[in-house]
Each structure stands twice: as structure tokens, then as C-alpha cells.
UniProtKB/TrEMBL annotation:
<dbReference type="GO" id="GO:0016491">
    <property type="term" value="F:oxidoreductase activity"/>
</dbReference>
<dbReference type="Pfam" id="PF13646">
    <property type="entry name" value="HEAT_2"/>
</dbReference>
<dbReference type="InterPro" id="IPR016024">
    <property type="entry name" value="ARM-type_fold"/>
</dbReference>
<protein>
    <submittedName>
        <fullName>HEAT repeat domain-containing protein</fullName>
    </submittedName>
</protein>
<dbReference type="InterPro" id="IPR011989">
    <property type="entry name" value="ARM-like"/>
</dbReference>
<dbReference type="InterPro" id="IPR004155">
    <property type="entry name" value="PBS_lyase_HEAT"/>
</dbReference>
Length: 333
């Protein structure tokens, strides 16, 4: 029995030693393999980096020849060159960007990205949406719109950002719809996307924003007010003014009151003055008073005079900041 126990112990120790050696060899092999791959990647990067940098630093008549060199990169080098080109898109504009877009189109980057929007992996779908947005080509719009209803919130978020990069005003209503309950796309992402779309021309955004200002969802209305004010979409100003007094959400009413500092004019003063009434929500009153003060016109400031004796100390302070009003200046002894 003792001999058997020693035999088992020796075999156990032998197996454990063999396993330790195998693990050690595997670790060394992995590290060596990683080093080889890293050196191989560095060698590939060293071949393509100068070509991409030449495009980024090219003068007007040098852009086309530099892009031709990138387009002619051999197939084994193309994945590395493609990553470099895509990484450069945030810093290029105008003719250089257009030329690089054409290179990517010719090399099939957009086609592969559009195909990947239906991949099983959420990571691949998100990356595909990001690439389509970076390339900024409307041919991929339909695929990205479909991803707004993707099962993954990460994919939906990247898709919303990508649609903003495409700059197509026809998707504005769809972007606003992505804010409704259940989507979980951050309002900041949708707002930024809409601002990106409207930077060139706000006219096409007007119908979508007007519809969103009457939407049943609070987040949709809040985003529409913020975008309208940021882009100075003046045709929506009256609709924003209506939100100040009649929206069921105090948050929307506050946002609308502040937005009138950019969108409003003399016509908005009575609305803002009504919003400072004692029966209104305290936050709305404060926002309306601040906007009247920011307007700075005699008529707007005059409406702050009754607030000097208000129970709210913040309102009293704003009224005092307004200084003498037309009413007090014109009053007799």
C-alpha cells in the first residue's frame, strides 16, 4: 500500500511539473507571437504612414497625385492604410476629404461597411455604422437608418451619431423618433447629430422640429427646443413660445423660456412676462425673468419691476439687476 502511494505521488509530481513546463512554454510562445505580430504591424505602418501623411499635407495641386498613391497600395497593405485614412477623417475637410472618400469608395470600404451592418456581432454592426458616418456617403443612409431600431443600444447610439455625420436633413424626424421611450439613445447624441445636419442649412430641419415641439414625449420636445435655439431656427420661434406657457412639463417650459433669449423678439416679451406670474412654476418664473433681463430692452426690463417685492429672493435679485425701468424713470415726484 505504501509503495502504491509513493508511485501515485511521483506520477502526480511528474504530471504537475510537465504542466508547469507546458504553461511556461505557452506563455513564452504567446509573448513571442505578440512581438512578431507587433513588429509586422509596425513594418506595415511604416510603409503606409508616409503615403497618408503626404495626402494630409498636400497642397491643392498635390492632392490628386498623393491620393492616387494611397489608392494604389497593394492589397496586403490596404487594411492598414484604410485604418490610417479613417482615423484622419476628423481632421480633414474640403478637397482632401472628398478625395479620400473617393479612394475609400474605389477600394470598397463603404460597400464592406454597408454589408457589415447586418453582421451578427453588435460590435461589427456598430463599427460599420461608424465607418459609414465617417465616410459621409449618402449611399449608406438606408443601412444606418435601419440600425436606429437595432436590438443593441450601443449600435443605435452609433447609428444616430453616424446619421448626423451624413448631413442628410431627411433623417431629422427619424433621429428625433429615436428619443422615444425604449430606445435609450442619449438626447445629447441626437441633438449633436441634428446640429451637425443643420449647420449648412436649417430650412430642411424646420418641419421635423415643429413636429417634435408638439410631440407627446418630453425628451423629444426638450431636444427640439435646444436644437432650434442652438441653430437659430427662427421659423420655430412661435412654437417655442407656446411651450413656455402651455407645455405640461416644467422642464420643457424652462428650456423654452431660456431659448427665447436667442429666438425671441419684442413679440415674446408678453409671453415671458406672463410666465413670471406668482401662479407659475418657480423654475419657469426664474427662467422667464432671466430671459427678460438678457433681452435688455426697456420693455422687457420694465416687466421685471413688479418682481422687486417678490417672495422669491432669486427673482428679487434679477429685478434689481434690471436697474431703473421706464416706469420708475417716468414716474413723478
Amino acid at each position: 500500500m505504501l509503495v502504491l502511494s509513493w508511485t501515485v505521488l511521483v506520477w502526480t509530481l511528474t504530471v504537475l511539473c510537465a504542466l508547469c513546463v507546458a504553461l511556461l512554454l505557452a506563455t513564452v510562445a504567446v509573448r513571442v507571437g505578440r512581438g512578431v505580430l507587433a513588429r509586422r504591424r509596425e513594418a506595415l505602418v511604416a510603409q503606409v504612414r508616409p503615403l497618408v501623411l503626404e495626402v494630409l499635407t498636400a497642397e491643392d495641386d498635390e492632392v490628386a497625385p498623393a491620393c492616387e498613391k494611397v489608392a494604389a497600395v497593394p492589397e496586403p497593405l490596404w487594411p492598414t492604410a484604410e485604418r490610417y485614412v479613417l482615423a484622419a477623417f476628423d481632421s480633414v475637410r474640403g478637397e482632401v476629404r472628398d478625395a479620400l472618400v473617393q479612394v475609400l469608395l474605389d477600394r470598397g470600404t463603404l460597400a464592406r461597411a454597408v454589408a457589415a451592418t447586418t453582421a451578427r456581432s453588435a460590435v461589427r454592426r456598430a463599427r460599420a455604422a461608424e465607418v459609414v458616418g465617417l465616410v459621409g456617403h449618402v449611399d449608406g443612409r438606408r443601412s444606418i437608418v435601419r440600425l436606429l431600431s437595432d436590438p443593441s443600444v450601443e449600435v443605435r447610439t452609433v447609428a444616430a451619431r453616424a446619421l448626423g455625420q451624413l448631413g442628410d436633413p431627411h433623417v431629422a424626424a427619424l433621429l428625433l423618433g429615436a428619443l422615444r421611450p425604449g430606445s435609450d439613445v442619449p438626447a445629447s447624441i441626437v441633438g449633436t447629430a441634428l446640429i451637425g445636419i443643420g449647420e449648412a442649412d436649417t430650412t430642411a430641419l424646420e418641419p421635423a422640429l415643429e413636429g417634435a415641439l408638439a410631440d407627446r414625449d418630453e425628451i423629444v420636445r426638450l431636444t427640439a427646443v435646444a436644437v432650434a435655439a442652438e441653430l437659430l431656427v427662427l421659423p420655430t420661434a412661435r412654437y417655442v413660445g407656446e411651450r413656455v406657457l402651455h407645455d405640461p412639463s416644467p422642464a420643457v417650459r424652462v428650456q423654452a423660456a431660456r431659448a427665447l433669449a436667442r429666438l425671441g423678439g419684442a413679440w415674446a416679451v408678453p409671453t415671458l412676462a406672463s410666465a413670471t406670474a406668482p401662479t407659475e412654476d418657480p423654475g419657469v418664473r426664474l427662467a422667464a425673468a432671466r430671459t427678460l433681463l438678457d433681452m435688455g430692452t426697456p420693455t422687457a426690463l420694465d416687466h421685471l419691476a413688479p418682481l422687486r417685492d417678490d417672495l422669491d429672493p432669486d427673482l428679487r435679485r434679477l429685478a434689481l439687476e434690471a436697474g431703473p425701468t421706464l416706469t420708475t424713470e417716468g414716474a413723478g415726484p
